[in-house]
Description:
The chain has 4 helices and 11 strands, in the order βαβββββββββαβαα. The protein is an alpha+beta fold. The strands form 2 sheets. Strands 1, 3, 5, 6, 7 and 9 form a 6-stranded mixed β-sheet that branches. It has a 5-stranded mixed β-sheet with strand order 2-11-10-4-8. The mean pLDDT is about 90.
Amino acid sequence: MKKFTHTHHQHQTTLGNTLYKPVLVPTLYTALLMGDLAANSSVYGPQTNAYILKHLEVVEIVINNPELEDHTFHFHGHNVQVIETGPYGNSSTENREPVAHKVSGPWPMWRDTIQVHGFEFIRVRFRADNPGVWFLHCHLAWHEYNGVAVVFVEAPGVLQQRQSVPKEMVEMCKRQGIPTQGNGAGNQEFDLSGLPPAVYPSS
């Protein structure tokens, strides 16, 4: 089982290690066209917060929210089982009741959108059975815009066997000046020159 833990930082809300920013080449194109290198998260650029998932592995994600503000997270490509919720950090404030600890029963609920309340953690789980490039992001528009997101590159080898980039999509990108080949910077292998520097949250 692959496990990820994400904690919001005190001064900047993030998922992953950096603030998500779009790169020059769409991540789906890199996953489809980089061959074996597509299984290495470095080719996508640190700005994508890319996690590589193996085909059919069970993935568990814990999101910690040590802030008063609630966050709603949306999963693309999967419904997830909500396994556990509970207090994180200072769960008792003047503005709300302490967060209760809850563990799911034998039939956890399935959701593609989850709410992580202030001073709460949530644990979710899914099986990586849908090869593709999937976004996990905060549904608060200003948080998503500011980079509260990660990308799951799921089973890139299987994806390459099953799908290809339609020529219509390539033409559409060319008309907009969007590169369609190479790593996140449009270069070969691990040369990411041309990308803006990754932004790491302050602690």
